[in-house]
Design goal:
elongated; six-stranded antiparallel β-sheet; alpha+beta; 205 residues
Length: 205
């Protein structure tokens, strides 16, 4: 949110905010992290463009397309050596008419994204399986992260056959694994708090 005083310009407020970031970083002893004094005004965006499940051999598999665009602050941290964690959350909700849908099952798929300055490559790691891939550009790394194909979700036998279920999915930039001082900066700077809206559909549609 941009706050503009009676006698100050928007540019002046942004510059003040950036100087405060640098002061906070210095006070916390954060070194090796470049805090831009003229950060681009890019809040980033996560969006679920499409999602569906397929039942094969008694298991539900997920296909999804997620658009990832990191904020200027997150990109700056990434290129300065901070590893980012991107979570894909999937939930199965049993449908109810007169009260909130109870959570029937949930899956958390986590990916790590890191930039190696020496090789100038972006590394994507599946934190659930340990598999890694390397990319020449951030765009290609984020594009790969956003293409989910045949991700196993749940055994169909664990769901009640006579019940109706909704499935929902969202993408979140997690701050849990960010080093302590930077986590405080992440909280202070809302540009770090990236998450998509829930994308919901009915199982069987």
């Amino acid at each position: 949110m941009k706050l503009v005083g009676n006698n100050r310009s928007v540019a002046g407020v942004r510059a003040t905010g950036c100087r405060r970031l640098a002061v906070v970083a210095a006070a916390l002893g954060v070194t090796g992290i470049a805090i831009p004094l003229h950060a681009q005004d890019d809040p980033g965006r996560f969006e679920i463009r499409s999602a569906s499940v397929e039942l094969r051999s008694g298991v539900y598999y997920l296909d999804a397309w997620i658009e990832y665009r990191l904020s200027a602050e997150a990109r700056e941290a990434l290129e300065s050596g901070v590893a980012l964690t991107l979570d894909t959350e999937v939930e199965f909700l049993r449908q109810r008419r007169f009260w909130f849908d109870p959570l029937e099952a949930a899956l958390l798929q986590s990916y790590g994204l890191q930039y190696h300055a020496l090789s100038q490559r972006y590394i994507v790691a599946n934190l659930n399986t340990g598999e890694q891939s390397s990319f020449a550009t951030l765009f290609s790394a984020l594009n790969s992260l956003g293409r989910i194909a045949q991700l196993p979700l749940i055994d169909a036998a664990l769901l009640e056959p006579d019940e109706s279920y909704d499935i929902r999915i969202r993408a979140v930039l997690s701050t849990e694994d960010i080093p302590g001082p930077l986590r405080l900066l992440a909280f202070w700077r809302r540009d770090w708090s990236l998450e998509s809206e829930w994308y919901t559909w009915q199982l069987g549609e």
